[in-house]
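Appendix C: a fully annotated inverse folding record. The material below is reproduced so that readers can follow the format used throughout the book. The structure is listed first as tokens, followed by the designed sequence.
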């Protein structure tokens, strides 16, 4: 049954941005409520804690000189938010009304709040190729998360698509488990940072197919067993035998709830005022990857989460709260 409560701030999302906003808001006595999210039918791989929950070692988060796993880092974020009195609901928000204040926010269990302010930290989700066979063999070979699914492919041949840091990370991780990784990239140079590129280029278990694109994923009743890959320069296609295909081609911001309500940039990322986390609706703030198509790092997400909590606190004071 719905039980509506009025609170000062509701935070939607539980990655580094959402939990950092919660830590700062809680320490400012704003008693934040976090809707931490979870899997949906369209996005079964979404988990509370965001993208770091499907990452292996995080080596670039300051304060952890020997690296920390993504899930452990997020567990620490959560505990720190709870320590200062954050209320956390492990569910998705399914309904919002930002047309008048206090705003209305409802979760999938029916729990709802009237909230003086809202911080959106819903992050971004992995993109898919959209080729024939991809959907058919999802979770039967096709995956967007090597950490989650890599162990199923011990001593087998797998493919990774993409030329960014995620693709390098997935390929390097998989190379430790599988027999061979073929990285398929649509251009003749990688977008990834030099250090991540070198790990791939120097790994004898990884080979690269340049200027190439997956056209179709093929298989049988047991699952995927190959992919048709086209050379974009010559136009020639070949069938590569592989039991796994890991898609690592970037992300889409999670803004479905806010379509037509909050202003977005091209590509769908939420618009915030320059140098601030304010959106086009007073009292609604956005932080983390949902409003950042450029840096997209855990540390920058956490930084903007902190900004959002401070912007919210100051805005509430301006409103006489
Ligand atoms: P990016 O957007 O950086 O890279 C996406 C890659 O996929 C590009 O090489 C792109 O090709 C390719 N691509 C995009 N669409 C398609 C398509 N339809 N078909 C085939 N290929 C496609 O995304 P990432 O997820 O790799 O990284 C996002 C951000 O996260 C980056 O800032 C990255 O640095 C960061 N990151 C950092 C990590 C770390 O430091 N440990 C780990 C993972 C990510 P093209 O190059 O031609 O555009």
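Designed amino acids, in order:
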């Amino acid at each position: 049954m719905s039980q509506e409560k009025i609170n000062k701030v509701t935070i939607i999302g539980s990655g580094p941005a959402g939990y950092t906003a919660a830590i700062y808001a809680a320490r400012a006595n704003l008693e934040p409520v976090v809707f931490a999210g979870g899997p949906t039918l369209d996005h079964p791989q979404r988990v509370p804690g965001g993208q770091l929950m499907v990452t292996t070692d995080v080596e670039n988060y300051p304060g952890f000189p020997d690296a920390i796993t993504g899930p452990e880092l997020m567990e620490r974020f959560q505990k720190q938010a709870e320590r200062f009195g954050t209320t956390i609901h492990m569910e998705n928000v399914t309904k919002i009304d930002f047309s008048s204040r206090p705003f209305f926010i409802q979760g999938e269990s029916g729990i709802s709040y009237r909230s003086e302010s809202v911080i959106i930290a819903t992050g971004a989700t992995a993109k898919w190729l959209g080729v024939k066979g991809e959907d058919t063999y999802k979770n039967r070979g096709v995956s967007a998360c090597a950490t989650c699914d890599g162990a199923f492919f011990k001593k087998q041949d797998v493919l990774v698509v993409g030329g960014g840091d995620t693709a390098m990370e997935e390929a390097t991780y998989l190379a430790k488990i599988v027999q061979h990784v073929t990285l398929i990239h649509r251009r003749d140079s990688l977008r990834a940072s030099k250090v991540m590129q070198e790990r791939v280029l120097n790994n004898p278990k990884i080979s690269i197919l340049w200027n190439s694109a997956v056209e179709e994923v093929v298989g049988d009743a047991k699952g995927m067993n190959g992919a048709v890959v086209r050379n974009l320069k010559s136009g020639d296609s070949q069938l590569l035998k592989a039991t796994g295909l890991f898609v690592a081609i970037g992300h889409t911001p999670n803004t479905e709830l806010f379509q037509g309500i909050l202003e977005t940039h091209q590509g769908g990322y939420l618009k915030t005022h320059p140098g601030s986390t304010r959106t086009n609706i007073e009292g609604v703030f956005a932080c983390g990857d949902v409003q950042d198509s450029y840096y997209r790092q855990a540390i920058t997400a956490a930084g903007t989460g902190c900004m959002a909590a401070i912007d919210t606190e100051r805005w509430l004071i301006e409103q006489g709260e």
